[in-house]
Amino acid sequence: MASTRSTFYVTTPIYYVNDRPHIGHVYTTTLADILARFHRLRGDDVFFLTGTDEHAAKVVDAAAQRQLSPQQWADQNAAVFQATFEKLGITNDDFIRTSQPRHKDKVVAYIQQLIKSGDIYQGEYEGWYDPSQEEYVPANKAKEYDYKSPITGRPLVKKTEKNFFFRLSAYQDRLLKLIAEQPEFVQPESRRNEVLARIREGLNDVPISRTGTGGWGISMPGSTDQTIYVWIDALLNYLTTVDTPERLKYWPANVQLIAKDILWFHAVIWPAMLLALGRETPRHVYSHSFWIAEGQKMSKSLGNFVDLEKIDTYVEQFSLDAVRWFLATQGPLGSTDSDFAHDKVIEVYNNDLANALGNCASRVTNMIVKYFDGVLPAPAIGRDDAEGRALRSAAGEMPGRVDSLYDKVAVGAACAAAMDLVRAVDTYIEQTQPFRLAKDPEKREKLATVLYYCAESLRIASLGLWPVIPAKIQALWQMLGVSYDIRHGLFHDWCLWGGLEPGAKITKGEPLFPRVVTDR
Ligand code: MSP
């Protein structure tokens, strides 16, 4: 039978294979993982892609220093990224490496197509080049930056090259139209405005081939000594990976997550290339901001760099899910940077996870064990009071709110919407005081209703929280005696009131998030 499920394709940037994974890579990949998990839970046919960008000239130098071939060096480092993401519970469906033949062959075919259509032509280029970033800086910008790299501060050099060019200038109007007609194409709004302003300044054709890479890279069709510029090669990964008969259903990508550092390539060059290739453009390019650490830009010399080792210490102390929660709720999704500060990690952990969710789960399950021997009581039918109605209506609204927030990539707000329901359970407990009802045998029916409402609302909230903290929610489901097969997710159905069966066995379990007092 033909599948009628919606497809959902989410990507991260492919990371420079020379780097060691750090908080920045982990953040974007975790966000993509949360979106992928949510969409699986919602029943979509999901494809989640991450990978490594391997053809930078720096790879050749770094490999030579270690007496390795570029390929050997890339193999070693790509394996580190893969192992890291696996350890962090990332559920990517594929891992693309740009040195793989499946990628290279398709890139060559696309470039040939563009040469044929006249979108790529041969010419000569002279400009200000930033060797540390491997990119040209436009003349007006070069002057503005005093002929220094805006990223590293190292001097720009004047460079002349015989080159192949991509006819970007021909796409100015179509790009403006795309961004105007499809506002979610570039988000958040501030980044969208930035891109619009820069396109309106005018677009120049861009050189897309390089010499002197020692053969590392994808050979430029029609040239004996040039390779395809690494950025062009890299951008195409999103398409090469799914440009097969089985996977083409995923194109165009639904959400492409990036950070502000690579906005220009993704919001201008990339869609222009797709237009030239006659392919659809992605629905949503979301450009988040940066993590800084302890109030300052991360740097090795300041000692505030949040590298893998540091991330591991947080995972050990607080749990992987707690780190995911922190990234998801405190991360730089908007246009301002976020601070990875130790005290903030503890504060968020205690407020949201230990005191709200963990405490609520313990209270509710403890009371059912204590007052009903761990057997979930049946609620009284049709005898809802105002507090009960308010709680039921909060539980009824949560799934729709969470869904529409995820649709906008508002991950932090989606977390808050689900956690609000947990907090509503706490409020309901304060209002109804089940521990007092338990003392009065005549209030037994009321007590049963209250505890059923608490457990059922907590179960519904847990479904909204699962994409972010899946292991802890799995433990909570065990306490509540339910299980879900996420490969066939039915989020909205599962969130309907009444999913918990009276008579179900409820257990106490270990505290989900033990409170952290202080540790330094
Ligand atoms: N290889 C290119 C991307 C090619 S995509 C076709 C590249 N790689 S990178 O390794 O430098 O990764 C950049 C991405 O890592 C950012 O866009 C962002 O997703 C993530 N981050 C790197 N540092 C970051 C922070 N300090 N904070 C948040 N995310 C950051 O550019």
Provide an overview of this structure:
By secondary structure, the chain is α/β, with parallel strands linked by helices. It has 19 helices and 14 strands. Helix 10 (263-277) links the parallel strand 11 (255-259) and strand 12 (284-288). The chain has helices at residues 23-41, 57-65, 70-87, 101-117, 139-144, 172-181, 189-200, 230-235, 237-240, 263-277, 308-318, 320-330, 342-372, 386-407, 411-432, 434-437, 444-465, 470-480, 491-494, and strands spanning 7-16, 45-53, 94-97, 120-130, 135-137, 157-166, 186-187, 206-207, 209-210, 227-228, 255-259, 284-288, 291-293, 338-340. Helix 6 runs antiparallel to helix 7 and helix 12 crosses helix 13. The chain is elongated and about 90 Å long. A 6-stranded parallel beta sheet has the order 3-2-1-11-12-7, with helices on both faces. The protein starts with 6 loop residues before the first strand and ends in a 26-residue tail after the last helix. Helices cover 49% and strands 14% of the residues. The site of 5'-O-[(L-methionyl)-sulphamoyl]adenosine has 19 residues, from strand 1, helix 1, helix 8 and strand 11.
